[in-house]
Design goal:
Layout (H helix, E strand, L loop, with lengths): L2 E5 L4 H13 L5 E5 L3 H9 L10 E4 L2 E4 H9 L17 H19 L10 H4 L4
Parallel strand pairs: 1-2
Antiparallel strand pairs: 1-3, 3-4
InterPro entries: DCC1-like, DCC_oxidoreductase
GO molecular function, one term: protein-disulfide reductase activity
Organism: Niallia endozanthoxylica
């Protein structure tokens, strides 16, 4: 089963999140693709993701998760105490997604925007689609 994280390649918060995950994903369970890349666009179409969805997206096999659910499902597989965040799935989804939405809505204002996607190192490049 392939796990792919789709992210906004221009968002500093998203870029830092990808780097954070890579550092803590010792088993290399996750691959990455920008939502604007060809691979990202193909996955978005395949999983019928609404074009106006502005979210962190996790594709696990044939299932697709968005917003807080996607982020928490990723935490489950990270090394260290980050696994504990997976337990927040017990919080009702509307509450979790409200908080997620506030951060997502303000991410460019709070964290800035990049002119281009990051260029991964050769050893990490193989994890990008």
């Amino acid at each position: 089963m392939m796990n792919v994280i789709l992210f906004d390649g221009e968002c500093n918060l998203c870029d830092r999140s990808v780097q954070f995950i890579i550092k803590r994903d010792n088993k290399a369970l996750y691959k990455f693709a920008s939502t604007k890349s060809d691979a990202g666009q193909k996955l978005l179409r395949k999983h019928r993701v609404p074009v106006d969805l502005d979210s962190f997206i996790l594709v696990e096999g044939n299932k697709c998760f968005y917003k807080s659910t996607a982020a928490l499902r990723v935490c489950k597989n990270l090394k260290g105490g980050w696994k504990l965040l997976y337990g927040l799935l017990i919080v009702p989804k509307p509450v979790r997604d409200y908080v997620y939405g506030m951060v997502a809505k303000n991410r460019y204002k709070w964290f800035g925007k990049m002119d281009s996607c990051m260029i991964p190192s050769p050893e990490i490049r193989k994890r990008f689609l």
